[in-house]
């Protein structure tokens, strides 16, 4: 039985769910793949836990509750170097300027010959090309489902389900939070501030909602997808961006009167000038496939040359679903199904 | 550069399109996978063409136009045995009782250590379990996208996009022809006979439309999916079936009055009594996700434990798209991405 040692960095909400699901699925991995998959390490900004025999739920809970610095000599670098892990799952916060610790961890993991699964977006936004080339050079996988709409398949569609097709374009409602805010404004006639507050109260929006609300989340996703699946060299700063915060009551009233529905739509199109990625606030009519995509529901539409068009709606938008998307990537790694 | 020799059996409409696409993509395969993919053989019921250096378009056209028995000593068995091919694409007519020549070809190919891609359904309906076990024993792939809604991903969703999730159920509008007939009856107030005739005139329905119209096509797809993705032992005769032919003008009028839309829905559900596969004519209300799926458009809805629900609509329903689905399978084989 092959042993797969896993470490999770940036151990927060999604990391905890990934650890829980992974423990739950150990029997399944053994039976289906003859694989002994164990979580041997977990690290957050100031401390880390490590056990070559696998971290139990209790140890993780105690560590999570304590908040204390378990390993006083902690350094992320040493942690990864000494972990002898096979797979890194990086779930930390996204630093869109430098890539932050996530970029350092993923780069180091790949350099050490580990496979890497990114849930956080910062590293991929800042240097997808570099990381991808490094993974290729080392013969390991770099998987990104968790960073590109998670339970809603996006990179899968482009690289797996439509293998061999020419992708003519892709557009999507990629951020559940913004769609929730727009839906509430339309359906309940509240302002964007009120709708954002509502989303925060329901745990849908972060305390600082800017990343989602101001279009950064969608912009990150289209940047990563453009570079990963269209061989583009798109920078986050190249992507036009729109904020749901700017939507006024007057606009909402006008859209309603015209039978239109506002959606924050991320898109990637092939143009004569090359790949164009954008985030725009569009008011779509009732016949548009995104018109009925409401609340936190996400959606993506892909247009191809010979297989036609595909509209995909759904996929849960919670930490468990994000963790499950990362473990889907992990399972593809165990199967040897690398990204293309 | 690794050489991949391909043969196509049951060389008809889809087979021709597969040959054309394959020729078109040879440069792409070389560049992307360092793979020299060539069509070395093509066979139909009474004759076969073979060229170890690859069949050119002209040779195929001439053979197709002539209809003559090129190889007078033709036997499918000898053809496959002497082809030294790596991949079989079987696109012949479906014999739902015996599996027909398709079953013989696929079985023989697997036994010879060839990978097999099924577009026709007969062999899979009759003996998926046997073929799958044989493929496993020989360490080769058995791929079935072309036989399970082609450009609309179904088996992909269950085995790849949702890897690790528990699939709670799946339902779909799996047959474009029946959906076209029902849509025409609802929208134009014509009888099922008239709608079927219209579909035949447009090349959507076969001269003998029974396979689609009487629910066999949908029943085949759910039978294959149940056995391939749910580890079930469903026989085609276990699947309840409904025919679009039986829909009366009175029913249509009543559904219209009630704001309902009839759909031929294939489904697979986990029940306490095991896996249940069914084909039913359901009148769905306007809020149902299939209500807006019109004409030849297909759709599938999958419900999972932790990733939520996914609704997928679209994927072209023509011979080119079916061929492209088979070549997607071929590309996964080249990548070493076998089915799970």
Automatic annotation (TrEMBL), chains A, B:
Active site as annotated: 221 (proton donor)
Annotated metabolic or biological route of this protein: Amino-acid biosynthesis; L-threonine biosynthesis; L-threonine from L-aspartate: step 3/5; Amino-acid biosynthesis; L-methionine biosynthesis via de novo pathway; L-homoserine from L-aspartate: step 3/3
Gene3D superfamilies xref list: Dihydrodipicolinate Reductase, domain 2, NAD(P)-binding Rossmann-like Domain
Binding site for NADP(+): 10-15
Alphabetic keyword roster: Amino-acid biosynthesis, Methionine biosynthesis, NADP, Oxidoreductase, Sodium, Threonine biosynthesis
One GO term of the biological process aspect: threonine biosynthetic process
Binding site for NADPH: 121
Catalytic activity: L-homoserine + NADP(+) = L-aspartate 4-semialdehyde + NADPH + H(+)
EC main group: oxidoreductase
Family: Belongs to the homoserine dehydrogenase family.
Name recorded for this polypeptide: Homoserine dehydrogenase
Biological source species: Brevibacillus nitrificans
Organism lineage: Bacteria, Bacillati, Bacillota, Bacilli, Bacillales
């Amino acid at each position: 039985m092959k042993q797969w040692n896993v470490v999770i960095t940036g151990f927060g909400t999604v990391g905890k769910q990934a650890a829980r699901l992974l423990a739950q699925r150990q029997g399944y991995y053994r039976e289906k793949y003859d694989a002994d998959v164990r979580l041997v390490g977990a690290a957050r900004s100031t401390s880390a836990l490590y056990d070559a025999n696998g971290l139990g739920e209790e140890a993780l809970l105690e560590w999570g509750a304590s908040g204390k610095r378990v390993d006083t000599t902690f350094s992320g670098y040493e942690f990864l170097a000494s972990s002898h892990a096979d797979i890194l799952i990086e779930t930390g916060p996204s630093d869109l300027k430098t890539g932050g610790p996530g970029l350092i961890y993923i780069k180091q993991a790949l350099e050490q010959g580990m496979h890497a699964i990114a849930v956080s977006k910062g590293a991929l936004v800042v240097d997808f090309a570099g990381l991808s080339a490094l993974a290729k050079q080392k013969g390991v996988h770099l998987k990104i489902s968790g960073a590109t709409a998670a339970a809603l398949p996006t990179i899968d569609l482009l690289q797996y389900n439509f293998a061999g097709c020419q992708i003519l374009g892709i557009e999507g409602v990629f951020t559940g939070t913004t769609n929730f805010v727009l839906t509430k404004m339309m359906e309940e006639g509240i302002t964007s501030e009120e709708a954002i507050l509502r989303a925060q109260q329901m745990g849908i929006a972060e305390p600082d909602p800017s990343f989602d609300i101001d279009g950064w989340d969608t912009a990150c996703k289209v940047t990563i997808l453009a570079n990963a699946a269209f061989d583009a060299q798109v920078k986050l700063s190249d992507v036009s961006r729109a904020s749901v915060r700017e939507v006024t009551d007057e606009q909402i009233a006008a859209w309603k009167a015209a039978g239109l529905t506002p959606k924050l739509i991320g898109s990637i199109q092939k143009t004569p000038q090359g790949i164009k990625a954008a985030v725009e606030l569009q008011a779509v009519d009732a016949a548009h496939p995104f018109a009925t995509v409401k609340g936190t529901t996400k959606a993506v539409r892909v247009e191809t040359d010979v297989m036609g068009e595909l509209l995909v709606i759904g996929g849960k938008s919670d930490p468990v679903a994000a963790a499950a998307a990362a473990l889907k990537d992990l399972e593809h790694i165990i199967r040897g199904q690398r990204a293309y």
